[in-house]
Amino acid sequence: VGTAFLSIASYVPLVISYGFMGYYYALIIYNTLSTLILLMFAFKLFRYGNDIEIPNKQELGNIIKAVFKIGLYMYVIKILVTQWEKLGPVVLGKMVSVEVLGIFGFALLISSKIMVISDAITDVTLPSMTSIYEKSREKFKDVFLTANSKAYFLILVSAVMLIILKREAISIADLIFSFVGKESITTRYSDAFVIMDPMIVGFWAHAHINLLRSGLSVPTKNMWTALVSTVLMFIFTFITFYLLRIDPLMAFSISMGVGALVGYLVYIFLLKYTLGFFPISKKDIEFTGVSIMFLAGYYYNLPVIALSAVYLLVTYYYYVKNYK
Q: What is the DSSP-derived secondary structure letter of residue 262?
């Protein structure tokens, strides 16, 4: 909470006073003050904490070695993921006009919102699953599968609802913006809705890769599987795009879906090979099949409001029966 107020207090006045450069001034001030606050907290914790055991030289060396080993993998993966997310505008920028590229950028922006859920969950699962793995490995599998199933359920429902109701969701935003005289987003980016669905599937798969990385690969120090998955996601996106001979925007959207799905499926089997169990349960697969049936109804042009209402009812029933 304190850092959130600090962020507002530094960014708002500096951006107003100095414009574009004010953002970077505020960034420096915010990061410097945040670091100092955390150092003060750590100093107080180590000075007055009675239950903290300071590691000896050998233990400290092992900790640093383990952290840097995982950190190196995470650094490479982060670079690949960032490049994967930015690959579309870079590649398409050489093929299409700025206006058309803006349509792709809008589709990318909406589709990537699936990652918000995944990122929020990984902030919790990374430290908690690491702690469980270190303290009680016999319970690790059951705890992970239970927690991951609920996350899988939430992300799948969000992705399906976004595919079915994307136009209606943006129309609500249009209604709100119309009161302040803004141009209709739905009209301006109408072509973006056509290419959005495969991209949403791609970010759905990418979100699960993110969950498996933080919930399994990091705690078990099995980072090579995460790296292989990310590399394959990147490579298959690139290959698929150049194999498709269709509209460039739709081609890259499909490529992101294919690349992420390949990376996710390979990741599942690599984890099965290395850890001895599949990181996805039978009920998750069953609910995925149910969701695909509703998506088929969407592509058969069934009324989206009625379809989404029935899907939510089925979702609630399935959650109470299998996940609650």
A: H
The two three-digit tokens of residue 231, written as one number:
């590399």
Burial class (CB within 10 angstroms; exposed 0-12, middle 13-18, buried 19+) of 304: middle
Q: Answer for the pair 193, 167: CB distance below 8 angstroms, yes or no.
A: yes
Residue with tokens 């840097």: 68
Q: What is the pLDDT of residues 12-50, one digit of tens each?
A: 677 667 776 777 787 788 788 878 877 887 777 666 655
Question: Which pair of structure tokens corresponds to residue 272?
Answer: 């099965």
Two tokens, residue 321: 């029966």
Query: Cα–Cα distance between 131 and 39 in angstroms, integer?
Result: 23
How many CA atoms, within 13 angstroms, populate the side-chain half-sphere of residue 101? 13
- What pTM was computed for the model? 0.79
For tokens 């995470």, the residue is 74
Cα-to-chain-centroid distance, residue 268:
17
For residue 218, give both structure tokens.
């990091």
CA 163, CA 204: separation in Å to the nearest integer? 11
Give me 159's structure tokens. 């992705």
The angle that helices 114-135 and 192-212 make with each other, rounded to 10 degrees, is: 10
| Four-CA torsion 257, 259, 264, 267, nearest 10 degrees | 180
